Amino acid sequence: MERVHLLIVYTGNGKGKTTAAMGLLLRSLGQGGRCAVLQFIKPDSLETGEKRFSRKLEILWENFGEGFLWDQESEEPTRVACRRGWMRAKTLISSEAYDLVVLDEFTYVLKQGYVSIKEFSDYIEALKGEVKTPHIVITGRDAPEGLVDIADMVHEIVEIKHPWRTAQIPAQPMIEY
Asked: Choosing from 64, 105, 106, 133, which is the catalytic residue?
């Protein structure tokens, strides 16, 4: 069967976008795939369960962010970090070294204009027909329409009920990070 690389997006206001991407990463590893995760917006100091486990498995995991935008006086350090991450993403995607590359929280990078939709879509378009291009998984809220248009698969994660909203229960290890 011919392998066709896919652009997959997990978006929406519900919890589970990164979790879904990690499920694909696990499935890919089970098929002998080589995987990388580039996490945007979130700083390298953020230690999540999936990041710790990925490193134990020697999966490439790199962060390109300075923290949540609402906590910053200036977006400039985040913009610079995200641009650096985008350059790194293009290098990894083009390297033929990976079967799956996750760009976690990348919808924010596009939404904020740190990388324009045109620049991104032109890059994706140039990959068409390349046999060894990895599947690319993008996560984050508010996926821009241009991203949805070019994606092969888009899933919207919708919050129905969350314990933080219903009972002010804080984020729980193993569930949210």
From this structure: 105
